[in-house]
Amino acid sequence: MYTGMNALNSKYSGRGLVILGFPSNIFLKQEPGANATEILNGVKYVRPGGGFVPNFQLFEKIDVNGNKEHKLYTYLKSYCPPTQTEFNPSILFYTPIKANDIQWNFEKFLVGPDGRILKRAGPGVDPATMEVDIESALSPASGDSGGALLG
């Protein structure tokens, strides 16, 4: 997913697309880094590794579900249906579990420059498959001059 996000950022950043990454450790504890530097090192050397460096903003780790859910994700989830409705509680490290929760790492939201949520895509969706929606959001006909892809 990181490489796909980099590719989209390279292709569309000049047209106003901004990609923002929000790591979370509530899914099988896969983001154990204590801060952004540790998380970036994990990306660079482990997943995807090979010296990879994201070309988009990677923020400090937050909770995207549960009692400590960040308000940004409360907002995002309130405007679109969930990508899946079944959860495996044994791999989730938060409570309570709600039907509209983020399913797993790399769930994506396309947000217009006006803050309107345009699309929600599941964790397994290749970022490249969102290009039609990104093109539409960035087109002069839409009246928009930018947008954000949050993952």
From TrEMBL:
It comes from the Eukaryota. The keyword Transcription regulation does not apply. Belongs to the glutathione peroxidase family. This is Glutathione peroxidase. Gene3D superfamilies: Glutaredoxin. GO terms for molecular function: glutathione peroxidase activity. Keywords: Oxidoreductase, Peroxidase. InterPro entries: Glutathione_peroxidase (IPR000889), Thioredoxin-like_sf (IPR036249). GO terms for biological process: response to oxidative stress. It comes from Elysia chlorotica. It holds the Pfam family GSHPx. The keyword Oxidoreductase applies. Signal peptide: none annotated.
